[in-house]
Amino acid sequence: MIPFVRDISFEYGAVDQVSPLIRRVVANNPGPFTYKGTGTYIIGRGEVAVIDPGPDMADHLQALLRAVEGERVTHILTTHTHMDHSPLSVALAKGTGATIYGRADPALGPSAVRVEEGGDAGFVPDVAVAEGQRLAGPGWTLEAIETPGHISNHICYALIEENALFSGDHVMGWSTTVISPPHGDMSDYYKSLDKVAARGFATLWPTHGPPITEVAPFLAAYKAHRLDRERQILEQLAKGHSRIAEMVPEMYAAVDPRLHPAAANSVLAHIIHLTREGVITTDGAPGPGSAYRLA
User: Fold this and answer.
1) Sheet containing 155-159: which strands, arranged edge to edge?
2) Is the Cα torsion angle 176, 180, 184, 187 positive or negative in sign?
3) Which CATH class is domain 15-223?
């Protein structure tokens, strides 16, 4: 079982000092994919970085501007281009003169189902960050870590001074992460999980929900959950359930039905991975309506 962490204390629009170098402001956009809302992080003092400005909401923009009043925002960093993470970066940059860092929207076209808050189509940062690139200010250093899987342009940022990672949607304490083709890729996600685990971070700061402080066992359970989903898919195939639509109601019986379309895409992501591994097969390319069988 994943040891989920769901307790978080905050007030919308207020700025909270959550660690010596980190402040957080939560946007009022709660929902089935955002939990209590988008947590925007402010790093440092005086000359600061902002991570995941969030959705294009006027009240959240004003809350962020109040939080950094009297300071200079030098960097705006986006973990990825879903609408609950990156859109406010443009208005925040206009209001502060900061440079926007991240990766451009993959522009892969619409997903088969609506997941997350959709994509920030056309988003292009001022600076495209690269693996291992370091961005710094007075007393703080951030390192970009490529973590595709949830979406192909996902980037996490390590705060070197606190051995912490801003994990975006790659790892969340309150829930598992949606992996939804064509934007999401399960094979990439496994590699990215292992990559983060190998770094030995003391704390993970997801964009939604509270921090994860028991990092190693949490990541181990997070991956074990995915492997268990693969086992369930193989069991479904053994029972004669050859299509995803037959699998999801049994596999996700305890999950909010509003999330079943996203769950179906997650099953598809697993199936694509399993076909690459030669464990299952289908006629033609794997798709949401394809019939599958054990190899």
Assistant:
1) 134-137, 140-146, 155-159, 164-168, 203-206
2) positive
3) alpha beta
Q: Residue 126 — very low, low, confident or very high, per pLDDT cuts 50/70/90?
A: very high
Q: What is the CATH number of domain 224-294?
A: 1.10.10.10
On the question of pLDDT at 21 being above 60, the answer is: yes
Structure-token pair, residue 205: 């700061």
Backbone angles phi, psi at 114, to 5 degrees: -80, 120
Domain ranges of the chain: 15-223, 224-294
Residue with tokens 């190693």: 216
- pTM here is 0.94
DSSP state of 116: T
